[in-house]
Predict the structure.
Amino acid sequence: MTIHVIGTDTDTTTVHFAQRAHAAGHRVEFVNLRAVVRHPWHFELDGWNGVAHLRSRAGVEHHLPGDGSYYARVVDLSPVLDPDEGPAWTRLVMGLTAFLDAARGTVVNRPSGQAHNGSKPLHEWWLARQGFLVPPSRTTSDRERILDFLDRHGPVIVKTITGVRGAAQLVDAGRFASFDASQGPVHLQRRIEGFDVRVHLVGGEAFAERIDGAVVDYRTRGADITHRPVEVPDELVVRMRSAAETMGLAFTGWDFRVDAQDRWWCLEANPMPGYDWYDRRCDGAISAALCRVLAP
Amino acid sequence: MPETTAARPSAEPGRADRPIDLLIVDEADDPFGHAFSSFATARGVAVDRCRLPVAARRTTLDIAGCEVTVDPAPSVLVRPARPPLPDATEDERFAWTECYSTFWSAAALSPRPVVNRPNEWGGVSRSVLSAVVTERRAGRVPVLRENFWNDRPPPDPDRWFHQDLGSFAVSDSPAGITFGRSRERTATQGWEQVVVVGSAGFRVTTADIGPRDVEAQSVAAVAALGLQFATVSWAIPAGDGPAVLARVNPFPGLEECRPVLREVFTTLLELLLP
């Protein structure tokens, strides 16, 4: 069975998966959107059977079956592209996400897989509703309310509301001395003392790493951190599976903080994990699991 | 809407004037927002209009487990928000998306009516530009092809109708369109449009379209997409075939609603202020 990989040849995660799948003996068709978008393109959705055809005037042509298997990382890169390329990219993504949302086959990183990760307060509320322990948060542009939250919880974590750009930081009242509403909104979350755990859930399989270090955000470049495999409590895996199924996602990346009482606080569930960094440390086990989901 | 949400009074912090009943989040040049605001104000409703970033910065959201507080929490009509201009700086774009995400959560979790209410599926629920996907999500079986294209419309353009993906205007000709969406059609006798408000559907014409119940079909399609207010455009075939869904617009314009404006405004106000 062919695995269609849709993304760009500059995205390390996409390239990593394509290479791993190919090395494992799978037939891989790489749909490099960077090559398509440089020339006038045409994307046809056949309403009846769900087949799509993507063609560009440069001669690139892809046949995308509605019941096919797809590993997709389709994001709108228009904000970082030249003004000439940006609009073409936005419109191509419109068509592709529509197709991938509706395709009957298996789609890893299906775009419609509940987008609430892009709106952190809603995402955290949703996780709590699924039974996860989630640190309390406040989202506001009101300085008095920021100070009130800090007064109650001490230094807290501030992170972006969309989830893009910028590492989480630990902040105290001093950071908001000259804050005014035009600088908001900010999303504050109670700090959980403990260590980090990252779990990749592929179908029903969980791959977890404990991450120790003195940094607030372990993704910080050059951070002095250590990784080691860790067991996830069974009942938590069950809860993650159920949540992923509700979101319609075959692949999710979960961030937890584990405190001294061994309570697992859920920080977020990523619907399109950039997992290559973790996969290299577990010798491709996550990619292998993805291939089992996509080409059973 | 979450059952656990605890509402605070809908007074805005730092504003001494009367608490607002209805917030219209729109752009200053939105004719629908302006006209609906006048309609509601004339009926004694305290209305405020503001842009999305302003609404986001006025709001505080507290999440403690499943408990949510949104403050202030008036009823909200959500209209299209204009994104940053192409020459906006990266910081300005970032600030706008942070505001958008905050407003999305606040509107999704508010205990008061919000039309159209964002939810966990997206800022505009499950609505999507593609007619094929819209039909699938609405529980219909799409039979006609759809193209997204750049510079090169499908051959034989008369067999399709076309949408400009810049202005979102729909026309019979692809002329002048750089980025387009085209939907195949059979020979049509004309078009019909239905404005859906909650469980009510209002046809904008009285043309004879045979036994096709496009009002009921429109209400069902809009509900399946998680919307409460939308216009649904249908191509009516020349023969006896079923109407073909062309577009669901979650932000009906004033001109679209004009033929049934009083019914739309009245029902919308009832939906927002039950």
